[in-house]
Amino acid sequence: MFDISPQLFALQLMTGIALGAVYALLAIGLSLIFGMLTVVNFAHGAFFMVGAFLGVYSLGLTGSFWFSLLLVPLATGAIGLLCERFLVRPLYGRGIDYPLLLTFGLSYVLVDAMRFSFGIEGLPTSTPPDLRGSVFLGFGHFPLYRLFLIAATAVIVLGLWLFIEKTRYGLIIRAGSRDPEIVRVLGIDISKVWWLVFGIGTAIAGLSGLLAAPTRAVNPEMGIPILAESFVVTVVGGMGSLPGAVVAGLLVGVVFAMTSLIAPEYAELSIFVLMAVVLLIRPQGFFGKAGLMS
Amino acid sequence: MKNSIIALLLLARRQRVATVLLFLLVFPLLMPYDALSVNILIFGLYAVGFNLLFGYTGMLSFGHAAFLGVGGYLAGIAVVHGGWPWWAAIVSGVVASCLAGVVIGYLAIRTRGIYFSMVTLALAQIVYYAFYKADSWTGGENGLRGVRVERIELPGISIDFLNPLHKYYVIFAFVALALWVVSRILNSPFGAVIEAIRENEKRAVACGYDVARAKLLVFVLSAAICGLAGALRALHLSIVPIDSLHYLQSGQAVMMCLLGGMGTFFGPFVGAVVLLYLEDVVTNLTRYWMGTVGLVFMVFVLFFPKGIWGTLADRIERWLGRQGRSA
Fold first, then answer.
1. Domains located in chain B, CATH noted
2. At B157, is the secondary structure helix, strand, or coil?
3. Is the Cβ of B125 closer than 8 Å to some Cβ of chain A?
4. What CA–CA distance (Å, rounded) separates A93 from A79?
5. In chain A, which stretches have pLDDT less than 50?
6. Would the pTM count as exceeding 0.90?
7. Total structural domains in chain A?
8. How far apart are CA B90 and CA B224, in angstroms?
């Protein structure tokens, strides 16, 4: 059962990291929105799915993957901005459950909107021409696209980190997630900040959908299981923590990949069991503040 | 005339179990076909179980499909693999969902608020994948088939369980029992404790109540009722679909509860009627059932968070209050 060569092990580890990169991106978006707005976006999986559809569609339309890479986050971010302004904003101050319930309904609407626009079958995907083939990594050949996926995630995470830690806007976001009242007193329109953060979060969700599209089937239901999986990542990493999202995302990806190597029938199960174990030992997650959850 | 209406409304409020049962007794007459009434009855019960946790205790679980599914699967396995009689199947379904409720509840009540929703959802997915993979027992992707119960033999009578109307009244008996239990729970001191937890958990702790224990207990009770609904559904459909464990099924309980009116006694049934009747009508008109229900649900969250029955009951209460003053 365990006669796995080191090469295969290393390759599977890389596959897990590539999968984890997508999880990390999703969890970052969730955490960002939660950290600011205390809203759990149940439509996050749906935004991921919309991003994948728009990505495949714009790739077919324009032929340029790099152009889609720019277009899709803008489009899903714009949808997110509209949703926040007209659907989520009226619910602030009405209890923590209502935005959650609303985004759950929104996810149904987005699923059917994609069925309506692109059919119930989903779209065929292909790896962008520039990123086909594989690279030799010293221990084996690894698909170039997955390597790109890891690199792109690293760039996005770095960019986001610089934005939040080093810019004036990031300063407002950090202050707003700690005490929105004081930020408002200082003369900053916090609702506009929330609006933009929701837009950024959904844009990242769309972007992760676009990036993940060539590695999985694109259909209207693809966002449904991934929502549950990104919840696992946020619980393991700690809600509202960006480093937590990245570390837990990669860990969950690796755990999934390694279990599929050793005992494939338990792959889906393994990550949920991981979450149960983390809940027992450290309910607030790796990087969550103690007491935040209880 | 007016006085008798007031008297009737006051009586209905006092005898809430009897009122709901009276409605359910004549309900099949209002529906286009009997199989739909059976479906609504079962899902109404599912929503009642969920409402105990969400509506009365304020804990928004997104994992209640686990209990509907475990109840259904264990009842189904008892019939298909064990050859057990129908009543033993129902008991084993309820007991199994209680056990699942203890395990999931123990882990989930360590978290609160939004985390509780996320954690229950993720824990329920464990159950989903476990049953999905155990296909020699559960039929995996195809669901568990052949849960065949044709007749219900009771001392003195034998009921044809294939006739939907007869089936309705057999299931009605179980629903009546469950509603009576729920009403007793809500009227008991324990019922006051769970509502206190919903209103202000810190204060309930300060008053000396063991909040964690109360939460776990109400979680398990709610799981048991949802498990009963699942077991009855298995006997009704003679198949347990794998989708009954999926978190979208949990979402259905949330939707029924909110549409009907959370924290009201009659609301879950109103929600079940609206959602399932709407589904029946809309799927004949368009393929886009999911989008329609999503839109309806969003409208309710935004504009009628108390749901249909909750809004109506408020009006009635206010009217009764005015009558009381003028009388």
1. 14-326 (1.10.3470)
2. strand
3. yes
4. 23
5. 291-294
6. yes
7. 1
8. 11
